[in-house]
Design a protein that fits this description.
Layout: H1 9-14, E1 21-24, E2 29-34, H2 45-51, E3 56-60, H3 70-73, H4 78-92, E4 96-102, H5 104-115, E5 122-126, H6 146-156, H7 165-175, H8 178-193, E6 207-212, H9 220-229, E7 234-238, H10 245-248, H11 250-265
Parallel strand pairs: 2-3, 2-4, 4-5, 5-6, 6-7
Antiparallel strand pairs: 1-3
Helix pairs in contact: 2-11, 4-5, 6-7
C-alpha cells in the first residue's frame, strides 16, 4: 500500500530526517501531528504532552525547513510530502493512528487519506489548506525587511504575545536565503494548486475540524465548507485564535483532541 522512495539525492532531501521526529508516549494507538509551512514539531509540543499519557504521539519536521539546496533538490509537490509521511509511517511500523494536521499539514493529511483509503483511524484538520488559503507569504521577495516578516507573522497569529523579536529574527534570517525563498514560493503555489474540493465527499473516517475564530489565512467560512463536504465531521471554533490553534491555544486544542480520539480507536 505504501510506496518506498528510492535513494536518489533529490528524494533523500525530500525524506523526513529521523533525528527531527518528536516521539512521545507509547502504546498501540498513535497520533501523527503535521505542521504547516513555517511550522515545527515544537508548535505541537503542549498538545502532544497533554495526550501522551494515553497515546503515542509523533511529530516530524517535514522536509520544508531551511536547508541548503532546498529549491533544486527538495520537495517539488504536495505528493512528495505525502510520500515522505507515508514512508515515515512504514518506518515506524504504525498500525492504528490518527492524522492531525495544521494548514499545509492538514492538506498533507487529506492527501494521505485520498491516496491510501483506510490508512488512518481518524482525521483532525486545523485551519487546513485544500479549499481556500490566503498565502501567508504574499508579497515575499528576495531579502525581505524585518518589518515585512513581523507583519507576516502578525497575520498568522491572533495572540501577539507569541510574536517575539527572537521569532522575527529567526524567520528573517531564513528568508535572507534567496534559494529558500524561491523554494517557499514554489511550495506556496503547490499548496494553492492542490484543491481537494471534489474529493472530500469520498472520506469515510471520523473527522474533527478545529479552527481559529479569527483566522485570517483560512477564514471561518472555509471551516464550514470543510464540514459541509466531509460527511459526519464535527467542527469546533476556538475564540481569540488565528491560523495556528495548536500553537496559540494548545490547552483548548488538547481538550478537543482528547474528547475526539476514543471514537477513532473504539
Amino acid at each position: 500500500m505504501i510506496h518506498h522512495l528510492s535513494s536518489s539525492s533529490n528524494e533523500l532531501r525530500s525524506r523526513i530526517d529521523p533525528s527531527q521526529v518528536v516521539d512521545l508516549g507509547e502504546g498501540p494507538d498513535a497520533v501523527l501531528f503535521l505542521h504547516g509551512l513555517f511550522g515545527t514539531p515544537d508548535h505541537w509540543r503542549v498538545v502532544m504532552e497533554a495526550v501522551a499519557e494515553k497515546y503515542r504521539v509523533i511529530a516530524p519536521q517535514l522536509p520544508i525547513d531551511p536547508q541548503p539546496g532546498r529549491r533544486r533538490n527538495g520537495v517539488q509537490t504536495i505528493r512528495d510530502l505525502t510520500d515522505s509521511v507515508a514512508e515515515l509511517v512504514a518506518t515506524l511500523q504504525l498500525d492504528r493512528f490518527v492524522l492531525c494536521g495544521n494548514s499545509l499539514g492538514g492538506l498533507i493529511a487529506l492527501d494521505l487519506c485520498f491516496q491510501y483509503p483506510h490508512f488512518a483511524e481518524g482525521l483532525v484538520l486545523s485551519s487546513s489548506a485544500g479549499l481556500f488559503e490566503r498565502s501567508p507569504i504574499r508579497g515575499l521577495r528576495a531579502r525581505p525587511s524585518k518589518e515585512f516578516v513581523r507583519t507576516t507573522i502578525s497575520g498568522i497569529l491572533y495572540n501577539k504575545s507569541l510574536l517575539t523579536e527572537d521569532l522575527v529574527d529567526q524567520w528573517h534570517a531564513s528568508l535572507l536565503d534567496r534559494d529558500y525563498v524561491r523554494f517557499l514560493l514554489r511550495m506556496s503555489r503547490a499548496t494553492r494548486d492542490r484543491c481537494v474540493e471534489n474529493e472530500l465527499g469520498t472520506l469515510d473516517l471520523p473527522t474533527m475540524i478545529v479552527w481559529g475564530r479569527e483566522d485570517g489565512i483560512t477564514p471561518p467560512a472555509v471551516a464550514e465548507e470543510f464540514q459541509r463536504r466531509i460527511q459526519g465531521s464535527k467542527l469546533s471554533f476556538i475564540p481569540e485564535c488565528g491560523h495556528a490553534p495548536n500553537w496559540e491555544k494548545p490547552e483548548m486544542f488538547a481538550r478537543l483532541l482528547d474528547s475526539f480520539l476514543p471514537a477513532c480507536f473504539s
